[in-house]
Amino acid sequence: MGKVFLVGAGPGDPDLITVKGKKAIETADIILYDRLVNPELLDYASITAKLIYCGKNPNHKSVSQVDTNQLLVDLALEGHTITRLKGGDPFVYGRGGEEAEVLATNDISFEIVPGITAGIAAPAYAGIPVTHRDYSSSVAFVTGVINKEIDKDEYWRHLALGPETLCIYMGVKKLPEIVELLTKNGRNKNTPVALVHMGTSKLQKTVVGTLETIVHGAKEIENPAMIIVGEVVKLRNRISWFEETYKNELLTQLTS
């Protein structure tokens, strides 16, 4: 019987992989990796390791979750040491819970290796703390894509008047609808909003506005991107660091 490691690869910057996550990559016979995993992390793999891509590409045919689950089971039953490498954290919108359930049902040994989720890291690299003593004592991590059986108004009503900071995954395409539902249900239209595209990577780009203006300002932003709603976004003006640091480093390289 083999063993499966469900590993969070972090949000994009390869240096944000955990020590335990790196060890799991190095020791695996087989690595199943997702679309949002930085390819540089695969350089840690053994030269004999088999790499299997099983990412889910929006609007394109991809490997189904059912097939991925079965592949993990089949490979483990063959006796392999498998690292299932997932962007961010496997238990934060990564379907790691579903995969762990399947492994447990089949009596397959597994370990969970948490990773840094984009909901914390992307705002941090954009100079936005998700909590701050003067601005926000509560934060919610939510998805812009909800189950069709859930009442959308009820879902966003709870969030509009609840947590002071919202970190919204998978919401870029639904941004106009999200803005409408938040303001309709009581969130002030002047609430600051930021969109962080490819957070923590060299391609990171941030757009800032308010619930009233962000839809127009975010037309140039595509997935993957995090949406941050709340007064904490104001702090970006003072503590933004990554994009400016990277620009300065790039300028130094070009002029040296």
Gyration radius (Cα, Å) is 20 Å
Instruction: Give, in order, the helices and strands.
Output: EHEEHEHEHEHEHEEHEHH
Query: Helical residue percent?
Result: 25-40%
Question: What is the count of β-strands?
Answer: 10
Which structural class fits the helix and strand makeup?
alpha/beta
Tell me the β content. Answer: 15-25%
What's the average pLDDT? 93
pLDDT < 50 runs, ≥5 residues: none
Question: CA-to-CA gap between the ends?
Answer: 54 Å
Largest beta-sheet characterization? 5 strands, parallel
The dominant shape is: globular
The DSSP helix count reads 9
Q: Order the strands across the largest sheet as they lie in space.
A: 3-2-4-1-5
Domain Tetrapyrrole methylase: 3-214
EC number: 2.1.1.107
InterPro entries: 4pyrrol_Mease, 4pyrrol_Methylase_sf, 4pyrrole_Mease_sub1, 4pyrrole_Mease_sub2, CobA/CysG_C, Siro_Cobalamin_biosynth, Uropor_MeTrfase_CS
Keywords: Methyltransferase, Porphyrin biosynthesis, S-adenosyl-L-methionine, Transferase
